[in-house]
Amino acid sequence: MSEINDQKFVYDFTEGNKDLKDLLGGKGANLAEMTNLGLPVPPGFTITTEACKVYLESGSEPVELRDEVTAHLDALERQMGKKLGQADDPLLVSVRSGAKFSMPGMMDTVLNIGLSDVSVEGLAAQADNARFAWDSYRRLIQMFGKTVLDVDGELFEDALDEAKAAKGVTSDTDLDADDLKKLVEHFKKIVRTATGRDFPQDPREQMDLAIEAVFNSWNTDRAKLYRRQERIPGDLGTAVNVCSMVFGNLGPDSGTGVAFTRDPASGHAGVYGDYLQNAQGEDVVAGIRNTVPLAELESIDKKSYDQLMQIMNTLETHYKDLCDIEFTIERGQLWMLQTRVGKRTAGAAFRIATQLVDQGLIDEAEALQRVNGAQLAQLMFPKFDEHAKVEQIGRGIAASPGAAVGKAVFDSYTAVKWSRSGEKVILIRRETNPDDLDGMIAAEGILTSRGGKTSHAAVVARGMGKTCVCGAEELEVDTKRRRMTTASGVVIEEGDVVSIDGSTGKVYVGEVPVVPSPVVEYFEGRMHAGADDADELVQAVHRIMAYADRVRRLRVRANADNAEDASRARRFGAQGIGLCRTEHMFLGERRQYVERLILADTDEEREESLKALLPLQKQDFVELFEAMDGLPVTVRLLDPPLHEFLPDITELSVRVALAEARKEPHENDLRLLQAVHRLHEQNPMLGLRGVRLGLVIPGLFTMQVRAIAEAAAQRIDAKGDPRVEVMIPLVGTVQELELVREEAEEVIAEVQAQTGIELKLALGTMIELPRAAVTAGQIAEAAEFFSFGTNDLTQTVWGFSRDDVEASFFTAYLEKGIFGVSPFETIDKDGVGALVRSAVQAGRATRPDIKLGVCGEHGGDPESVHFFHEVGLDYVSCSPFRIPVARLEAGRAAAEAKGSDSR
């Protein structure tokens, strides 16, 4: 990385490079990189993220900033041979945001800075095009008014619509210079009325205010919401790029566009992007005017098209990745305004990664880093059934794949409101803008009647992994009347169910049934990646998963409670069972046996209940060990909160009261009610459960251990290979574990003596209480393995119940930034994670060969898997569906660690 002067706040495009994203932001770093490559980039300079941080922390810009900006502006004016906003042939600049991580549409941009009542005439004369000059001026007032002066943007939109209506036209390009002059005066009146001040005529004041507005846009609600959604840190700040203007709105030989070096939706090679003649860049991403496909540029301007294709190849080879490019053509001259590694769909990510390996641009280790578990999970979602009877009502551009079904809503507020009420919704708009972000997050999918693959809706949806269909022109969207009308006259009212296919662009009325994803069929073994007819995507997933499995250190097990789940988990690549919750084996008809056991008054009653349970438990374990033959199976002894196995106290009280009123026999119910009252707990999750239950109810754990041991012996006798680990739950002190371990060893010895079969059952415990984590060194003296129960450990460390708090204050905590993400979704590294780390160290210090794993649902969370790799666990365990994700992330964690070591 280049040396950085801490006191320097402004860099010319010739001074930076792509590795300075922390300082120059993604846009500034890449503009510098393209300048270094000799590509046609308009001259300009970048104000660093450090300047933004000073501004955000202190409320004012660094004292040195104004002088540095002045010096760079002077140099730019000398290079261009014109001055900012001068009366004749004025220099105009754009002021654009550019954070380290791409945040499309979330922060502010102002174009055409330097135009005024005086300089607009000079621009018109220089360009010999009055319409162009006044169009640029009205754009400046509109963008500046909304972005810098906080004027309601709809006021400008309404005025523009009125001007078009008065002229009898539908496009802004049909307004002539006189129309636009009148519109400029109207816009200036809007500014004066809304703000109490005139639109600033001083070009330097325009630029300084725009720079400040970009700094402020870092902390707008929509930017903060996007950062939370994408897990982007809030303290990075944004850079500001000041770039000399080039104009795509000079006439039919000018235009602007966005291009991708590959299709961001599918990953396929080809010519992908959008182009709009006689327009400025914001027109393309806003989706206000429908673009033409990039391929049509070849017939419009072949010279620029050929040059663009060459530059795209240069950039993809240089960046070794899919590149997203913004460009402008000014009277036949091509200019590059931005490049970045492009956002892509999950399927495209896997395809592109393997394509680049085949091209020799990256190796397999880098390909593994180009995909992630969240993308793999998206590929496992169902898709629409191609053979279902459907009613198609339209078709747009397949902008972001997936099969989304929901009720039609026409604004973000309704999308959020209905979603919070449990409804699945499809957000339908003419085009989206950054203010729609919260509705886009809440919706199952997004449908727009305007825009293309590079519109705001498409770019944001791809980044979020949200299904999106754009530019469905045959659908007329009326947001005020909350309805959509099809070309054939079918009316979709708000609340009607629609289905959108982001892979084909098709839109259907009603709910279309779904079928399993081919990726799931591959993991299930129903599709072989080597087969001739195997899906290209499946081939890519297979190759990357195979490499992840070769390099990962963490093993991946499943949380499974029966043979069916275990078999599926094994097909998904599970290397054992990390958690078999035996309390799930006692639901349904068996619940009565546990109820009798808990309520038993005598040893005889207790023994009778245990005797009835033993063969049922044994058969469960026989089937489970057979399904996982040759792989470890961790069986957790009974850990139910007691209330789960007792009748509801209110329901039982009513039953007893009715029986007494009717003078009906109710001795058994009365006895049951007395017992329920005796055992009632205010907080069952912190009451008589786990090891405490095993110590208080004689014979309960020994019955389970006997069932496990006898099942293992039976499998061995049948030439099987059971590898059983018995786990004691909710241990807080080593003495609890020692008592249960002693009883278990006696039972195992008895079964060995009775069967003549040697049994090697490992005995260990869950670490799910803070005290267990703190005293892990002591507990390891009696435990052959630890499995971290991070669900309960999170509850007990934070002091809240998941079932209660997620619905009460979690939303507020996420919105206020107290949580970046729910601690139940991704492990809290500083709190819960610190206990895990110390327990690992203490456990290994006592017992170097202790086996360590995690069985909370964090075991399937991508970010958490990296943490578990780092702290040195041996395995993670998660639900069967999350196993491929955990395998992939375990491979990525190992490759990442190896890469860090080599550096």
Characterize this entry briefly.
Belongs to the PEP-utilizing enzyme family. The chain is an alpha/beta fold. Helix content is 47%, strand content 17%.
Descriptive account of the structure:
- With 903 residues, the chain is an alpha/beta fold.
- It has four domains: 37-43 and 76-244, Acyl-CoA Binding Protein, CATH 1.20.80; 255-344, ATP-grasp fold, B domain (D-amino Acid Aminotransferase, Chain A, domain 1); 383-515, 3-Layer(bba) Sandwich (Glucose Oxidase, domain 1), CATH 3.50.30; 552-641 and 681-894, Phosphoenolpyruvate-binding domains (TIM Barrel).
- It has 36 helices and 31 strands.
- Strands 12-22-21-14-15-16-17-13 form an eight-stranded mixed β-sheet. Strands 24-25-26-27-28-29-30-31 form an eight-stranded parallel beta barrel, surrounded by six helices. It has a five-stranded antiparallel β-sheet with strand order 1-2-5-3-4, sandwiched between helices.
- Helix 35 packs across helix 36.
- This is Pyruvate, phosphate dikinase.
- The active site is at 456 (tele-phosphohistidine intermediate), 855 (proton donor).
What descriptive keywords fit this protein?
903 residues; D-amino Acid Aminotransferase, Chain A, domain 1; eight-stranded mixed β-sheet; eight-stranded parallel β-barrel; 36 helices; 47% helix; elongated
